[in-house]
Amino acid sequence: MHRTGVDMVSLEEIESVYRERYAGLLRTASAIADSREGGRDAVHDAFVNAIRGREGFRGEGSVEAWLWRIVVRAALERRRREHDGRRVEAEAIWADRPGDEHVEVRAAVASLPERQRLMLFLRYYGGLDYQAIAEATDVAVGTVGAELHAAHRSLRRRLGEEEAESRD
After folding, report:
1. Are 135 and 60 members of one domain?
2. Mean pLDDT of the region 157-168
3. Which residues are within 8 A (CB) of 125 and not within 5 positions of it... i.e. 6 or more apart?
4. Domain boundary pick from 66, 88, 110
5. Whole-structure pTM over 0.90, yes or no?
6. Of 74, 79, 64, nearest to 128 (Cα)?
7. At which of 72, 88, 104 does a domain end?
């Protein structure tokens, strides 16, 4: 629902997005925060903040996009806090997960720039289309397409190189 004036988001609108999109919000927040618990906490914190700050909704875009922005920010903050502000290389987060059959893919995704990772998470974990990603991240639709294209190209290159090395 797009609004034309500046009026407060109702609790019913927030609850509706929560109920309809919780699974995608949780998957995306967990991917961003680097843990399921961190993702769960980020979604919780985001909705508490949305309810408390619902007068801050400016009516630009949909309520769902506004909530996605809040969830993304909360998940990024959760990840930063869990790493205590230390500079942690993204690939190192996935290096010590024994038994993970997708460790190479996870490491490749972790090696991407943060904005490309975010776009991938919103697209594939959140199930958002390009327009919804643009609204949730406050960028142009063309930027979403360019970032996803660059991410896919980087992943193909990296995973292709790793496959070639493992055959040697």
Report:
1. no
2. 66
3. 24, 27, 28, 30, 31
4. 88
5. no
6. 64
7. 88
